[in-house]
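Researcher: We're teaching a course module on how sequence relates to structure. For the next exercise, students receive a sequence and then see the predicted structure as C-alpha cells, so they can try to spot secondary structure elements on their own. Here is the exercise chain.
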Amino acid sequence: MTSTKPYLIRAIYEWILDNDMTPHLVVDVRYPGVQAPKEFVEDERLVLNLSPSAVRSLVLGNEQIEFNARFGGVARDVFFPVEAVLGIFTRENGQGMVFPELAYPLPGEPEIASDAHLEQERSKPRSVGRPRGMSPSSQEPQGPKLPSGKGKGKAGGPTLKVVK
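Model: And here is the predicted structure for the students to work with:
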C-alpha cells in the first residue's frame, strides 16, 4: 500500500484553510532531496508558510511537495520529498499533526541498517502523544514550543517555532 502521509498532509492543509487559518509545514532539511533556502533553517528544520497568499504553484503530491515563494523578497523554488515533512500546523493556534521522524543515515555516516529494515521501522505504528505546548490541564492550546537551541525537544522529537 502507498503511504498515508501525503493524504494526511493534504487533508490537514485543507482543514486549516477551511478554518481561515495559516498552514505551516515543518521540514527536516537533512533529508535527501530537500531543495529549500538554507539561510532560514533553525535546528535543522525549516518552517514554511503554505498559505495561498504566500506561495505560487503549490503541488502537494504523493512523492514530493513543490512551490515558489519569496524569501527575504527573493522568489525561490522549493522542492522536497513528502517524507521530509515533520509536521503541519496552524500559525494561529498550533493545531495540526506531527509525524514521526524517520531513521536515515546522515551524509558521511555509515548505514546501520538495510533498506528493508528501515522500511519495516517506518511502517510500524507509533504514538506521538500530545503536541508540544499543550498543557494537559488547559482547555486552550498554548501553541508550539519554541526551540531551545539544542536541536530536539525533551523527548527527542521535533520542536516547532511560532512564526508570526
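Model: If you want an answer key for the exercise: Confidence is low (pLDDT under 50) at residues 112-118, 121-155. The chain is about 15% helix and 25% strand.
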